[in-house]
Amino acid sequence: MKKIYLFLLFLPLLSCNDWLDISPENSVTLTNYFQSEADLESLHTSMMACMKSACKGKQPYYYMSVDADELKPNISGWEADFGKEMMTKNKTWLNLTWSGDAVWAIEEADAVGVELDYTVPCEGSNIWYDGWVIPRYARNVKAASYFINYLCQPSVALRNMDAIGYVSAVATPEIMEAKIDTTLEQFSDLSYFFGPGADSIRINPVQYPDRKVVERCAMIRDFGDRTELVLEMWSRVKGDNLNTGIVLLIFAVFGVLFVWLVYRRIRQYKQRQRHHRRRRRW
C-alpha cells in the first residue's frame, strides 16, 4: 500500500479553556506578525518564491502576482473539501485539511487500500474550534438549550464523533475510556484535555494531539483592519483576479446573447402579428 501524508494546518481542539492561553514557543504569533501591509506583502512574496521553486525547479522571481498557468498543473484544488476526496482516490499526494476531515479521509482510503497519514508541521499550526450557540433572536431558547444538553451527553457525543470525525468538547472519563486505543504504540499527554490522569494514554493523535503539539500552535485571530489585505493575498494565490481581456470577453458574450434574445423576441412578435392579420382576412 502506498503511504501518503496529510499535512494539516488546521488543528482541532475542542475542550476546556485552561489550555487556550498557552503561548507558543516562538514569540512571533499569528496575532502580532502582520503589523503593516509590507509584512503581508513580504510573506506573500516568500510564499510565491517557494511555490514556484518547488513546482518548477526554477529560480523564484519576486513579483507580486501568481502565474496560475504554471501552478495549476501541480495543484488539484484550493479548498480542503475538494482535497480530502481526491486523497481517498489516490489522485493527490498532499492536502491541507481540517483534522475531522482527515479522520474521514483516512477511514475512507483504508477501505480501498490506500494508506493516509496525518501530521502537524513542526513550525506549528492553527488551534481552532467550533461550537453550538443560541442566537439572541431564537424563538425557543429552552428547546435549543435542551438540544445542546443532549449533544453534550457522553454517549451522544461519542456517537457524534464516530459519525463526523471531529472531537467533542465533552472531556468526561467515559469519553476518555471509550477513545483509548491499546493497539497504538504512541503515548500522548492529554492532561490539558482530560485532566491530570491523562498524561500518558494511547489515543488517536489525529483527534487528540499531544500537549507538545498544542504548545507549538497558536490561535488565529481576527486581522481587523488588515482583513481585506489577507483576502486580496488569498485571491492572488488562487488566481481569482481576472484580467481585463477576460472581463471584456465575458461582457461581450453576454451582450451578444442579450441582443440575440431581443431580436428573437421581436421576430416572434412580428410573425404572430402577420399570422393574426392573415386570419382576419379569411
Describe this protein's structure.
There is one protein chain. With 282 residues, the protein is mostly helical. Helix content is 48%, strand content 6%. The chain contains 11 helices and 5 strands. The protein has helices spanning 37-56, 68-71, 80-88, 99-111, 141-151, 154-164, 173-179, 191-194, 211-215, 227-238, 244-281, and strands spanning 3-7, 10-12, 115-119, 126-128, 218-219. The strands form 2 sheets. The chain has a 3-stranded parallel beta sheet with strand order 2-4-5, with no helix packed on it. It has a two-stranded parallel ribbon with strand order 1-3. Helix 1 runs parallel beside helix 10 and helix 3 runs parallel beside helix 4 (99-111). The longest helix is centred in the last third of the chain and has 38 residues, at 244-281. The radius of gyration is 27 Å and the shape is elongated. Mean pLDDT is 76; it is low at 1-31 and 54-66.
Instruction: Enumerate the spans where pLDDT stays under 50 for 5 or more consecutive residues.
Output: 1-31, 54-66
Major β-sheet annotation: 3 strands, parallel
Mean pLDDT: 76
Structural class: mainly alpha
Spell out the blueprint of helices and strands.
Elements: E1 3-7, E2 10-12, H1 37-56, H2 68-71, H3 80-88, H4 99-111, E3 115-119, E4 126-128, H5 141-151, H6 154-164, H7 173-179, H8 191-194, H9 211-215, E5 218-219, H10 227-238, H11 244-281
Parallel strand pairs: 1-3, 2-4, 4-5
Helix pairs in contact: 1-10, 3-4
